[in-house]
Specification:
- The chain is 41% helix and 21% strand.
- It has a five-stranded parallel beta sheet with strand order 3-2-1-4-5, sandwiched between helices.
- Helix 5 links the parallel strand 4 and strand 5.
- The longest helix is centred in the middle third of the chain and has 20 residues.
- The protein is globular, with a radius of gyration of 15 Å.
Length: 141
């Protein structure tokens, strides 16, 4: 039985994020001990030319906005009383998912094959999570 579920969502595609959450809830439907750790990841802007034009604390404000959006999303898609932890990470997607899975001793990672709705196959981040993570992973299409 899975108790600690890491749910990776992309808040730029709410329909897909909803699908991932609903699937995780179906897996844990009869488990009152389920803890949902919902993560969204903000990738850093590496282009020094672009970053030169951004405000000084741009990354911090983006993380704050993502945190608010993640709370709003989970409030709308989890039943009241669900044990949900919100995680907004800043870094490379696959590295952050793998790091959080290890740190939180996750029983199962649930994520999409690709955050692009019409993509065929797995995204490079999904491939790297599957390749490098030691935890069970459920990849959804």
């Amino acid at each position: 039985m899975y108790n600690k579920i890491l749910i990776a969502v992309d808040l730029s595609n709410l329909e897909s994020a909803k699908f991932v959450v609903e699937t995780a809830q179906k897996i844990t439907a009869h488990n009152p001990n389920a803890i949902y750790r919902v993560v969204t990841i903000i990738e850093p802007i590496d282009d020094s030319f672009i970053s030169a034009f951004l405000p000084k604390n741009f990354d911090k404000s983006v993380v704050e906005e993502a945190n608010k959006a993640l709370h709003d999303f989970t409030k709308a898609h989890f039943p009241k009383g669900s044990r949900v932890q919100h995680i907004v990470a800043h870094g490379t997607i696959y590295e952050e998912i793998n790091r959080i899975a290890e740190e939180k001793d996750i029983d199962l990672i649930v994520m999409l094959a690709s955050s692009k709705p019409q993509a065929k196959g797995l995204s490079s981040n999904t491939v790297k999570v599957v390749r490098y993570c030691k935890k069970p992973i459920l990849v959804l299409r």
